Structure to design on (444 residues):
């Protein structure tokens, strides 16, 4: 690694010797020595929906790169692109009929925000603030770090931020002792209303339907998004669903927000959309947003060299067709529910506090005390310890911290490829059971 600029995300530890990964096949990764690992987090997080080494996707990539990789977008349109946009709009809920592609999740979120900004400008408004939730991650450009609420990532750059707004996230497991779910939801809705009433500058609200790596697959209370969307509608604030992790079947439905009725106006997608075979992200807008923009006669003020290119569209199309042809959304629902059931029994280990999530988007939260939910001493960095023991047992896992007050607390995000079988789910469970037990012994 002598030529790498080690980053927070890529081989961050200057002292550590990182083993070399050689190739992947299905849900497995293989290192230089040929040792096999199950990719339980879908690469660092929730990317590899269809698994590694799918030759038909490589073939599409090869064929399209020979035919036409990019084209002069100011003079032509392109068939591969059009058929792809139709495919993703058909996969999205009914009113989502217009889409646009970029290179990944950060760009998807940034472009969704730009679209929402232009929407309200078109309506004669001049609002300037995005509302998001603490404990959510929306990407790594300066703007979306500011929008996001993941303190560990944004902290270093706060001097460069304009200060977008944040409310609390909805996190039932960590709600105040003694509150019912409804009382807790009422408190959050009231906080949201106060924020909107006291801040006339807010033009959109963005949230992950299930908070991913930042909190470990945390879903909302029963009517949270329905109630939030009603408030947004009454103030003409657009609701953006960040589906970068939860889209394209990850939670056992086409999109994460579908679990709650999908009241969103714009969906941001990436990761599983192309399963990592080509950098791709997309913004899908509902008819209301699109027609408002169109009525102004002004095009969307955005666009980059690699927006809407045929090569990305061809890979995205082939990936989505693979998801549909192999019934991966249904498989995710079934195998995910099986795996979650098995993981529940890990609560027999005293440091497992909560098991949560939907489909193959699952989280395990670790605690010092199951009754009080007190987090484990941060100096132990327990989630990294579990990661290390899991690795020994042939599992690549993703241990995270910041579950409590967005700074301390440990959890793990599980997001294996959607092709996972029951047999492979058993292997994940067995490996995790050993790894968590060993880690617990080490800190006890
Ligand atoms: C919910 C969510 N939004 C946005 C992003 C940013 O995506 P990318 O890393 O592709 O830029 C991520 C990445 O993990 C994410 O989890």
């Amino acid at each position: 690694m002598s030529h790498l600029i080690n980053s927070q995300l890529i081989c961050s530890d200057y002292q550590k010797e990182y083993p070399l990964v050689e190739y992947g096949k299905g849900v497995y990764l293989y290192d230089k020595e040929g040792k096999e690992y199950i990719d339980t987090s879908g690469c660092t997080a929730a990317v590899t929906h269809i698994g590694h080494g799918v030759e038909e996707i490589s073939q599409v990539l090869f064929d399209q790169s020979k035919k036409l990789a990019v084209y002069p977008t100011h003079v032509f349109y392109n068939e591969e692109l059009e058929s792809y946009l139709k495919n993703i709009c058909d996969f999205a809920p009914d009113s989502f009929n217009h889409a646009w592609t970029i290179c990944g999740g950060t760009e998807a979120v940034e472009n969704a925000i730009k679209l929402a900004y232009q929407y309200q400008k078109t309506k004669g408004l001049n609002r300037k603030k995005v509302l998001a939730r603490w404990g959510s991650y929306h990407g790594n450009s300066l703007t979306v770090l500011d929008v996001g609420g993941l303190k560990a990532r944004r902290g270093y750059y706060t001097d460069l931020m304009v200060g977008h707004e944040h409310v609390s996230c909805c996190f039932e497991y960590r709600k105040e002792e003694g509150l019912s779910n409804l009382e807790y939801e009422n408190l959050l809705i009231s906080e949201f209303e106060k924020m909107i009433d006291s801040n006339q500058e807010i033009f959109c609200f963005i949230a992950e339907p299930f908070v991913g790596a930042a909190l470990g697959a945390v879903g909302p209370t029963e009517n949270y998004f329905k109630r939030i969307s009603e408030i947004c509608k009454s103030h003409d604030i657009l609701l953006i669903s960040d589906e970068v992790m939860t889209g394209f079947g990850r939670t056992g439905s086409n999109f994460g927000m579908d679990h709650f009725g999908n009241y969103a106006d714009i969906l941001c997608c990436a990761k599983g959309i192309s399963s990592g075979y080509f950098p791709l992200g997309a913004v899908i807008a509902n008819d209301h947003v699109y027609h408002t923009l169109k009525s102004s006669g002004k095009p969307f003020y955005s666009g980059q060299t690699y927006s809407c290119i045929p090569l990305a569209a061809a890979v995205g199309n082939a990936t989505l067709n693979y998801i549909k042809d192999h019934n991966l959304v249904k498989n995710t629902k079934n195998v995910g529910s099986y795996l979650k059931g098995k993981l529940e029994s890990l609560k027999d280990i005293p440091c497992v506090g909560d098991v949560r999530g939907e489909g193959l988007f699952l989280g395990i939260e670790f605690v010092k005390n199951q009754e009080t939910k007190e987090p484990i001493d941060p100096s132990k960095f327990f989630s990294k310890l579990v990661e290390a023991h899991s690795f020994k047992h042939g599992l690549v896992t993703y241990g995270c911290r910041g579950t409590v007050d967005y700074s301390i607390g440990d959890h793990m995000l599980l997001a294996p490829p959607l092709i996972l079988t029951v047999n492979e789910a058993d292997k994940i469970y067995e490996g995790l059971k050993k790894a968590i037990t060993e880690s617990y012994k080490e800190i006890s």
Q: What stands out?
A: The longest strand covers residues 96-102. The chain has a mean pLDDT of 96. The pocket of pyridoxal-5'-phosphate is lined by residues 45, 104-106, 109, 137-140, 208, 212-213, 242, 244-245, 270 (CB under 6 Å). The chain has two domains: 21-50+327-443, 57-325.
